[in-house]
Write a structure and sequence with these properties.
It is found in: Periplasm. The protein is an alpha/beta fold. The chain has helices at about 5-15, 35-50, 65-75, 95, 105-110, 115, 120-125, 150-155, 165-175, 185-200, 205-210, 215-220, 220-235, 245-255, 270-275, 310-325, 325-335, 350-360, 375-390, 395-405, and strands at about 25-30, 55-60, 85, 125, 130, 135, 140, 145, 180, 260-265, 285, 295-300, 300-305, 365-370. Strand 4 and strand 5 (about 130) form a beta hairpin. Helix 2 (about 35-50) crosses helix 15 (about 270-275), helix 13 (about 220-235) crosses helix 20 (about 395-405) and helix 19 (about 375-390) runs antiparallel to helix 20 (about 395-405).
C-alpha cells in the first residue's frame, strides 16, 4: 500500500519525537508575558505542554525589547533557550539570515499550517520556504477601550462611532474631571496610538502608502499632515502621570473608572478579565469605527534557536505542535485577550470583543498587516523616535513629516 509523501514525513516526525513514558522534554521559554492577564495566559501554554509530556521552564523578562535582547544575547553566546517569544513581524528575520534558528517544517507540514493561517501570518513566519516560528495568537494592536463607569459619569450614552465623536467624548470626560485618555508614555505605546490614527483616521490606502510603500509624496501630503495633527491632539487628553507608565497600569485606570478611553492591543482584555470585569457590562470595546474598519493583524510567535541536541529538537517540535493545537489556542486566547490563529476552533464561549475579532478575520477585505511587517526593526526604531519626540515636545508638524521620510528611507 502506498502512502502520500506528507503522511510518511508525519510518521517519521512522530517516530523521531516518541519518548519513553518516563521521559520529559524540557523547554526553557523566554517571554515577556509578565502582567496578570499575560501570566495567566502563559500558564495555559505551560499546562498544555506538560499534559503532552513536556516540562516548561519559565524565563519571564519584563518588556518585549528587553526579552528579545536577552534571547538574542543568549543565542549568540552559545547558551540558547529552547524557544523565545517574538512578535509576528520582521523582528527575527536577522537571526534567521544568520542561521541562528531551527525551522519547524516537519510540524508545519504535518499539522497543515498553510490551511488555517492567515496570509499575513504566513508571510512573517515563512522565510525562504521554511517555517521559522510557531504562531501563538492573533492580536489587533489598535483596539479602543471604554470604561462604562467613566462614560456614565461624563454623560456619554454609547461608544463613539467616528474620530470626531471620539474627540467630543474625550472633551466630555475632561469636563467631568476624569482622565480622558489613559496612556502609557513609552515609545512602543505612542506607536500604537499613531498606528490607530493612521489606519482609522487616515484610512487603509494612506496606511499602506506610509508603511508598505514608504512613499515620500504621501508622507509629505496634506492627508498625512492631518493624521499627525490628530495624533498630537490625543496627547492633550492624557494626564501628567502618563510618561513612563506601563500599559497595564493605564488599563487599570479604566478598570477603576478613573479614565475613560485607552487605545491598546486586545491583550488589554486580559487585565479586565483578571479584574473580573465583563465585556459589554463593565467596559466596551471597538476594533475601529464601523463594520468595515481595518483590522490590524499583529501577534506573537515562538522561535526555536539552533541546536543539534536531539532532546532539544524534540522539545522544540513538541512545543510548536502544542502551541498551535485547537484546545491550546482557545484556552490561551481566553486568558490573553487575543483570538486564535485558527478558523476551525469553537469560539462560542469567548466574549463579545473576541467575537468581533473573529468576525473581522473572516472578512479578508478588513485585514491590514501591522506596519512592522513592512519595515525593518531599525526603521521602526527610527520612526518611534520621531513619533515620541513629537508626542512629548512642541515640534512643527512639517518637520515631523520630513523626519518620518528620513526614518523610513531604505
Amino acid at each position: 500500500m502506498k502512502y502520500p509523501r506528507h503522511a510518511l514525513a508525519a510518521a517519521a516526525l512522530l517516530a523521531a519525537t516518541a519518548l519513553p513514558a518516563s521521559a520529559q522534554l524540557k523547554a526553557e521559554v523566554i517571554h515577556w508575558w509578565t502582567s496578570g492577564g499575560e501570566s495567566a495566559a502563559a500558564k495555559t501554554l505551560a499546562d498544555a505542554y506538560k499534559a503532552q509530556g513536556g516540562l516548561w521552564v519559565d524565563t519571564a523578562v519584563a518588556l518585549g525589547e528587553q526579552a528579545r535582547s536577552v534571547a538574542i544575547n543568549r543565542i549568540a553566546g552559545g547558551n540558547p533557550p529552547t524557544a523565545a517569544q517574538f512578535n509576528t513581524t520582521q523582528q527575527f528575520r536577522d537571526i534567521v539570515d544568520q542561521g541562528y534558528l531551527n525551522n519547524v517544517d516537519a510540524v508545519a507540514q504535518r499539522d497543515g499550517w498553510d490551511k488555517f493561517l492567515p496570509e499575513t501570518v504566513l508571510q512573517a513566519i515563512k522565510v525562504k520556504g521554511h517555517y521559522y516560528a510557531a504562531p501563538v495568537d492573533i492580536h489587533n494592536m489598535s483596539w479602543f477601550w471604554f470604561s462604562k463607569a467613566a462614560f456614565k459619569k461624563a454623560g456619554i450614552a454609547e461608544e463613539p462611532k467616528s474620530f470626531d465623536e471620539l474627540f467630543a467624548d474625550l472633551d466630555k470626560l475632561k469636563a467631568a474631571g476624569l482622565v480622558p485618555l489613559a496612556h502609557g508614555g513609552q515609545p512602543w505605546q505612542d506607536g500604537i496610538v499613531f498606528t490607530a490614527v493612521l489606519a482609522h483616521y487616515g484610512g487603509r490606502d494612506l496606511y499602506l502608502k506610509v508603511f508598505r510603500d514608504r512613499d515620500p509624496k504621501a508622507i509629505m501630503g496634506e492627508d498625512f499632515k492631518k493624521v499627525l495633527l490628530a495624533f498630537k491632539r490625543l496627547q492633550s487628553y492624557t494626564d501628567k502621570g502618563s510618561p513612563g507608565r506601563n500599559w497595564n497600569d493605564a488599563t487599570a485606570m479604566l478598570i477603576s473608572g478613573r479614565a475613560g478611553v485607552q487605545i491598546m492591543g486586545d491583550w488589554a482584555k486580559g487585565e479586565f478579565a483578571q479584574a473580573k470585569q465583563e465585556a459589554g457590562k463593565d467596559y466596551l470595546c471597538a476594533p475601529g469605527f464601523g463594520p468595515h474598519a481595518p483590522y490590524i493583524i499583529q501577534g506573537d510567535v515562538m522561535v526555536f534557536p539552533k541546536t543539534d541536541k536531539p532532546d532539544q529538537i524534540k522539545a522544540q517540535q513538541l512545543l510548536a505542535s502544542v502551541i498551535t493545537q485547537p484546545a491550546t489556542q482557545v484556552a490561551f486566547s481566553m486568558k490573553k485577550g487575543s483570538i486564535p490563529i485558527r478558523t476551525d476552533v469553537d469560539v462560542s464561549k469567548m466574549d463579545v470583543c473576541a467575537q468581533m475579532g473573529v468576525a473581522a478575520m473572516k472578512d479578508k477585505s478588513r485585514h491590514l498587516a501591522n506596519g512592522e511587517i513592512y519595515i525593518t526593526p531599525d526603521q521602526n526604531g527610527a520612526l518611534q523616535d520621531v513619533l515620541t519626540s513629537y508626542w512629548n515636545r512642541n515640534i512643527p508638524v512639517e518637520k515631523v513629516q520630513k523626519d518620518i521620510v528620513s526614518a523610513l528611507r531604505n
